[in-house]
Design brief:
By secondary structure, this protein is an alpha+beta fold. Helix content is 16%, strand content 44%. The chain has 3 domains: 120 residues, DNA Polymerase III, subunit A, domain 2 (DNA Polymerase III, Chain A, domain 2, Roll), CATH 3.10.150; 115 residues, Roll (DNA Polymerase III, Chain A, domain 2), CATH 3.10.150; 118 residues, Proliferating Cell Nuclear Antigen. Helix 1 packs antiparallel against helix 2, helix 3 packs across helix 4 and helix 5 packs antiparallel against helix 6. The chain is elongated.
C-alpha cells in the first residue's frame, strides 16, 4: 500500500472520522482508523461500534490534485497517534505500508513509522439496499435535527426517549423528540420510497449535524435492520438504531385552548433569557408568565437569596381569556425559541397546569409542547 496525500486534506478527513473513535474500547482495533486505498480514492473509517463515520478522499477536490495512489491496500492505524502526527506535518505526506502492517509516513525531511493492525480484523460496514432510500437536502436535514434533538431525554431509564423518532410515510418525514416534560415535532416533505419508523440516537444525529453543517448537497438515507445510514458524496455516517417502540404522541397535542397569544420570537427569547438569571435549577428553572391585561405579558423569576426580575412585553394578538398565570422551565422555553426561525410565534395555553403549545406563525410543520412546573 502506498499513496501521497495533501496534509491539510488528510488532516480534515482524520478529524471527522476520529470524532467517534474511543480509546476506552475493549477492542484494541477500534482505537484505530481504517485506511483503504483504491485506484481513485482513499477511504478512512472510524467507529465505536454504535456510530461509524466513513470519509472518501478523491484524487481531486475542486480541480486541485490532492491524492496520488501508487499501490492499493488497507491498514488500521492508531487514531490517537495518526491524528496528532498529521496535525504536525505540512505539505504532502508520502505513506507506505509493508507486509508487516508497519506504516512509514514521510513529509519533507521528517520520517515516522507507526505499527498497524491487519484491516481484515476491522468490523465490516453494514450492508444496505441501495434501491430503497430517502433523498433530502443537507440544509433541511440539519434544520430538522436542530429543531428536535435537544428535546430528547438525558436519562437512560427509558432508552427509546434518548433518541429522535424518525418516521417516513408518503413522502413525508416526521421527527419527534421528548423527555416526557417537553416535546418537539417537525415535519418535512421529502423524496422517499421508504416507509417505517426508526429511533435514532441523539449522539448520532448531533455528530451528523456537525459533519454536514454549512454544506449544500443531497443526503441519501438508507435503513437496514439495525442501522440507519446517512450518505453524501464523500461522507457517510452509520448509526445503530435504538430498539423498542416509541410512544404514540399524536394524542398529546391539546385541541382546545383557553388563551392564544402571538408574540415576537426574538423579543420573548431575550426576555426569558434575562429571567433565567434568577431561575434556580433546583427549583425547576421557574419562569413565570402572566397576562393581566389584553396587550401585555409579564415575565418574572425570583431567587429569594439573590433577587428578582420582572419584565413586561407587548402581545401582538390575543384570543380567549385574558387572565392567565403559568410557571414553566425557562431552559426548556429557551431551547425551543432558539431554533424557531420565524419572526413571530403563537402560544396556546390550556390553563395553569396544562401543557403549553408553541407554533411558529406561518409554519404549521413545527410544534413544541412544554409541561408546566410547580411554582414553589
Amino acid at each position: 500500500m502506498e499513496f501521497i496525500i495533501d496534509s491539510e486534506c488528510f488532516n480534515r478527513a482524520i478529524a471527522d472520522v476520529n470524532k467517534v473513535v474511543s480509546q476506552k474500547t475493549p477492542f484494541p482495533i477500534l482505537t484505530g482508523i481504517k485506511i483503504t486505498t483504491n485506484k481513485d480514492c482513499v477511504i478512512l473509517i472510524g467507529s465505536n461500534s454504535e456510530i461509524i463515520i466513513e470519509k472518501v478522499i478523491p484524487l481531486e477536490i475542486d480541480g486541485v490534485n490532492v491524492l496520488e495512489v501508487k499501490e492499493i491496500g488497507s491498514v488500521v492505524l492508531s487514531a490517537k497517534y495518526l491524528s496528532e502526527l498529521v496535525k504536525k506535518l505540512s505539505d504532502k505526506i508520502h505513506i507506505t505500508v509493508n507486509e508487516k502492517q508497519i506504516a512509514t509516513l514521510k513529509s519533507e525531511e521528517i520520517t515516522t513509522t507507526l505499527n498497524g493492525f491487519h484491516s481484515a480484523d476491522y468490523p465490516r460496514l453494514p450492508q444496505m439496499d441501495e434501491t430503497r432510500h430517502i433523498k433530502i437536502q443537507s440544509e433541511e436535514l440539519t434544520e430538522i435535527i436542530q429543531q428536535t434533538v435537544f428535546a430528547v431525554s438525558k436519562s437512560e431509564a427509558r432508552p427509546v426517549l434518548t433518541g429522535v423518532n424518525m418516521s417516513f410515510k408518503e413522502n413525508k418525514l416526521t421527527c419527534v423528540a421528548t423527555n416526557s416534560h417537553r416535546l418537539a415535532l417537525r415535519e418535512l416533505t421529502i423524496d422517499s420510497n421508504v416507509s417505517g419508523s426508526f429511533i435514532v440516537p441523539s449522539k448520532s444525529l448531533n455528530e451528523l449535524s456537525k459533519l454536514i453543517h454549512n454544506k449544500t448537497e443531497f443526503i441519501h438515507i438508507f435503513v437496514t435492520d439495525n442501522y440507519i445510514v446517512f450518505k453524501s458524496n464523500t461522507t457517510s455516517l452509520y448509526s445503530r438504531l435504538i430498539e423498542g417502540n416509541y410512544p404514540n404522541v399524536s394524542g398529546l397535542f391539546p385541541k382546545n385552548a383557553r388563551t392564544i397569544i402571538t408574540v415576537n420570537t426574538k423579543q420573548l427569547l431575550k426576555g426569558v433569557d434575562r429571567a433565567c438569571l434568577f431561575a434556580s435549577e433546583w427549583k425547576n428553572n421557574n419562569v413565570y408568565l402572566e397576562i393581566k391585561e389584553a396587550a401585555k405579558i409579564k415575565i418574572t423569576s425570583n431567587l429569594s437569596e439573590i433577587g428578582k426580575i420582572e419584565e413586561m412585553q407587548n402581545i401582538k394578538e390575543i384570543n380567549g381569556e385574558i387572565d392567565l398565570s403559568i410557571s414553566l422551565d425557562g431552559s426548556f422555553l429557551m431551547d425551543a425559541l432558539k431554533v424557531i426561525k420565524e419572526e413571530e410565534i403563537r402560544i396556546s395555553f390550556g390553563g395553569s397546569m396544562r401543557p403549553v403549545l408553541m407554533e411558529p406563525v406561518g409554519n404549521n410543520m413545527y410544534l413544541h409542547l412544554i409541561s408546566p412546573v410547580r411554582a414553589y
